[in-house]
């Protein structure tokens, strides 16, 4: 299924293809502050529509995840990283997708503080 998403101001918009079968709620210092519910897809399933200078990136700790955000409104719409098998992945903030009911999506809690 195709989903449309964006940051708050629309400077970053995107389309992502896949099946939402669950979300991840991480309690690391970054995720707990931004309040994202994450859906992981292969990076090639995400098609961005944003000027390169509209996107800011923040990394911390081991610097393996790119926490991307809109430089205008500050919303973290997606992140980028690599799966353990080397596959390029995108972490979509489900709260930035249009027309989905988050109450029906199972949420797995991940202890990112301990990782």
UniProtKB/TrEMBL annotation:
The UniProt entry, under SUPFAM superfamilies, shows:
Mss4-like
The GO terms describing molecular function are: carbon-sulfur lyase activity; metal ion binding
Give every CENP-V/GFA domain span. 3-111
Keyword terms of this UniProt record:
Metal-binding, Zinc
Q: Which InterPro entries match?
A: CENP-V-like (IPR052355), CENP-V/GFA (IPR006913), Mss4-like_sf (IPR011057)
- Taking the record's annotation, the residue ranges forming a coiled coil are none
In this record, what's one Pfam family? GFA
Has the keyword ATP-binding been applied to this entry? no
Family per record: Belongs to the Gfa family.
Q: What is this protein called?
A: Aldehyde-activating protein
Q: What is the lineage of its organism?
A: Bacteria, Pseudomonadati, Pseudomonadota, Betaproteobacteria, Burkholderiales
